[in-house]
Design goal:
Number of helices: 3
Distance between the termini: 121 Å
Keywords: Membrane, Transmembrane, Transmembrane helix
Strand content: under 5%
Protein name: DUF4190 domain-containing protein
Organism: Microbacterium pygmaeum
Largest sheet: none
Length: 167
Amino acid sequence: MSDREPGTEPEDAEPKPSITQPKPPVVEPPSPDVAPVGAESGVPGRHRGGFERWPTAPVGVLPEELTVEGPSEDQPLVLWAPPEPRAPYRGLAAWSLGFAIAALVLSMFIGWAFPVGLAAIIAAIVALRRPLEPRGVAVWAIVLGAISVVYSAGWLMWAGTQVDLFV
């Protein structure tokens, strides 16, 4: 222990810094170029003057020398015209051929593929009645679809003989 009294510090000890209160911040007055805010500008959305045109107002797009005037004698004013007819859809024959090929491949393995073959035949017949469809593709779809139906019928007949349905 030491022989000094409590509360006293040794002479060679560093002095403690004194704790002072921080100074409050200094608020400067506004500069003369800042206008004070009035009570009327505190409400959001209130019109404060200035731009008054509605955002949907018509805006001049064409210069004055290019403005379009009324109908001339060469071209009458058309207020309503029917829409242009759509071009006929081509591709039904190709779809029917795709269905026929899929039905033929499926009918070689399962007997329940005959609805796909029937769909191919019906689509090919409809494609034959359309003037823009390629006839050769539609005829091939009918032939392959018919072969797939025959194969499916053969599978179903064989399956029926295996379970003695046709005795």
